[in-house]
Write a structure and sequence with these properties.
Layout lengths: L16 E3 L9 E7 L2 E6 L8 E4 H6 L12
Antiparallel strand pairs: 1-2, 2-3, 3-4
Length: about 70
């Protein structure tokens, strides 16, 4: 999938999982699988902000492992 196609995916109903690097009272990074080799990355402190979207390769290049969120590829 091309990165430009990611924002065309409907993410309503996507189930976001949290991974906290510290106290979760300060907010957490959230991640959801939104399609084949497609991910949405959000911020629990800003639930109204549009999540960023990544391919699996882009997510790996950023050093983000879905397993840390309890998700599998």
């Amino acid at each position: 999938m091309k990165a430009s196609d990611l924002y065309g995916l409907d993410i309503r109903g996507a189930e976001f999982a949290k991974a906290c690097g510290g106290p979760c009272t300060e907010g957490c990074v959230t991640l959801a699988a939104i399609g084949q080799d497609a991910w949405a990355l959000g911020d629990s402190k800003r639930p109204d902000a549009q999540p960023l979207r990544f391919t699996g390769a882009e997510l790996a290049a950023a050093g983000i492992d879905p397993a840390r969120f309890g998700l599998t590829t």
